[in-house]
Amino acid sequence: MVQRAVSGDQDAFRSLVDEYKHLIYMICLNVIHDPFEAENLTQDTFLQVYKSLSTYEYRGFKTWLSRIALHKAIDYKRKTVHTKARENICLAEIENIADGRAPVQDMIIKEEEKVLLDQCLKRIPKHYETVIRKTYQENKSSRQIAQEENISVRTVETRLYRGKKVLRECFEELSNP
Fold first, then answer.
1. Domain 2-85, second-level architecture
2. Closest C-alpha among 89, 81, 142 to residue 114
3. Rounded distance, CA 46 to CA 49, Å?
4. Which residue blocks in the chain are alpha helix, DSSP H?
5. What span, in angstroms and rounded, lies between the C-alpha atoms of 145 and 128?
């Protein structure tokens, strides 16, 4: 059956899917504990198997298939752990705001903008980042920054101006993929 599927026989591949779909579903479900996503991962697994059939080395098809499913499920779980951690942080912030002044959508957008801003600050030259952070996050004056960095006030102002320009370009680039 596997040899026929490898040679391009669609009916043989369909038979393999029918034979192993429950096994693959159970592997995915045991890793991620979400029936809906387990179904999606089962389909992704068979799609991957179909694409990779030409590389199959005829050594334990069930094992090979199971390994692909397991890797798909583990990759999915890794990805969702990071996403859920970010969602939990956002939800915790939303729950902490009891007065309801800002709509939830505005708060979510603001949080996304914070993440984008932080990504952009990491991308711009360090001397711009330093001046921008000290100005806006630490509320320091140009004179204070100049003293701390041992540069002139004019240099601080120039770096702030140029840094904001570079930051704006980066922000637009990341927010409009």
1. Orthogonal Bundle (1.10)
2. 89
3. 5
4. 2-6, 10-32, 35-52, 61-96, 104-123, 126-132, 142-149, 153-175
5. 12
pTM for this entry: 0.47
With a CB cutoff of 8 Å and minimum separation 6, the contacts of 25 are 38, 39, 42
User: CATH code for 103-175?
Assistant: 1.10.10.10
CA distance 132 to 160: 6
Phi and psi based region of residue 150 (left: phi greater than 0; alpha: psi -120 to 50; beta: remaining) = left
Task: Please answer whether residues 167 and 132 qualify as being in contact, where contact means their C-beta atoms are separated by less than 8 angstroms.
Answer: yes
The reported pLDDT for the residue numbered 3 is 85
pLDDT digits (tens, 9 = 90+) for 98-135: 445 555 566 666 677 777 777 878 888 898 888 888 88
**Lookup result for tokens 């089962």:** 42
* 163 vs 167: CA distance, rounded Å: 6
Tell me the HSE value of 108 on the side-chain side, using a 13 A CA sphere: 7
User: Which segments of 38-89 are extended strands (E)?
Assistant: none
Q: Domain ranges in the chain?
A: 2-85, 103-175
